[in-house]
Amino acid sequence: MTDELTETLQNIKMIAGVENVVLIQKDGLPVASAGVWFSREEVFAVASSTCAIYGVARLIHGEFKYLLMESETSKVFLASLPNDPDYFLTVTTAPRVNLAALFIEMKDNLSRVSFLLRQHVDGRLPPLRSYSNDETHRVLSGFAVAEGHDTSYTTSRSIISLDRSQALTLRALMRQVHDSIPDIDSVFLSLSGGVRVSLEGFTNDRLAAMSFALHDASERVVRTLRNSSLQTVLCEAGPIRHFIYAVPNGVFSLWVNRGGQKLGLMRLLLKHYIGEIKRVLGTAEVMRPSVPDDLRELLLAGGTDNGVVLARRDP
Q1: How many domains, in total, are found in the chain?
Q2: Does residue 310 lie within any of the structural domains?
Q3: Which partner from 49, 118, 190, 315 sits 20 to 30 angstroms from 41, CA to CA?
Q4: Domain check: are 171 and 276 in the same one?
Q5: Mean pLDDT of 56-77
Q6: Are residue 117 and residue 168 in the same domain, yes or no?
Q7: Cβ of 101: how many Cβ atoms within 10 Å?
Q8: Which residues pair with 251 in a beta bridge?
Q9: What is the pLDDT of residues 2-25, one digit of tens each?
Q10: What kind and span of H or E run contains 78?
Q11: Range 6-42 burial, b when 16+ CB lie within 10 A, else e
Q12: CATH at 35
């Protein structure tokens, strides 16, 4: 089966613009690959990173067809196999690949991969491989773009504050999106922390948080692979297309019925509205979360064993 799988992945690799192809088990184990620059360690990094995105996308949409992450330097494409939820393909491409041609030419190859897995694997998943902290660090360090510099991975979240005028402007822009694109199911902003701003007002729900998490996980993958900033996530699940665009301190999320929709026209319209939304959010007040000095002193006070002292304030 290995030779047949490799040959099928090579067929996908030969599609114009495709750089690397990795067949991945749903729990993050790489099964086979074909490409121009992936080493064995890089294949592991791609598999483990995209596995997180695959899991979040399935939590939101259940069974989905594909997910596309776009940056200035490349595109990363996750494709589900027909009737086989245990595996998916990760494809990295050049930034200006013809997506329509890629989807058409991949269709038969995806069916072929699914057929080979059903014939030879028969539902038996190979065992997982474990990695120590040192091994994981060596894998990640292989993505460094400059020698002699330490790479640190940190997270930073801000709290955004909108006044009434800004909130009304954002809702007006979302109304224009809703009215200009037919068959929209949902349109909203998910600000840092998963707070949802929609035509129905301010709410805090699972959909907003999961959309934010999906974009966040995708951004980490793009930064790891290409040291680039994520621009757009597009997920297609059955009759629904889910667009996610990065905006200051949050993401813009649009769910739309794909029947009769022109993908290129929608993206052109959305580009204008995203620019306006970014302009409004760029003027909003942003605060960094902080701990009061007296509470910080209590939390970080050293005890006899250099541990953490937990305390509470009296009412």
Answers
A1: 2
A2: no
A3: 118
A4: yes
A5: 85
A6: no
A7: 12
A8: 190, 246
A9: 678 888 888 888 888 888 888 888
A10: strand 75-81
A11: bebbebbbebebbbbbbbbbbebbbbbbbbeebeebb
A12: 3.30.450.30
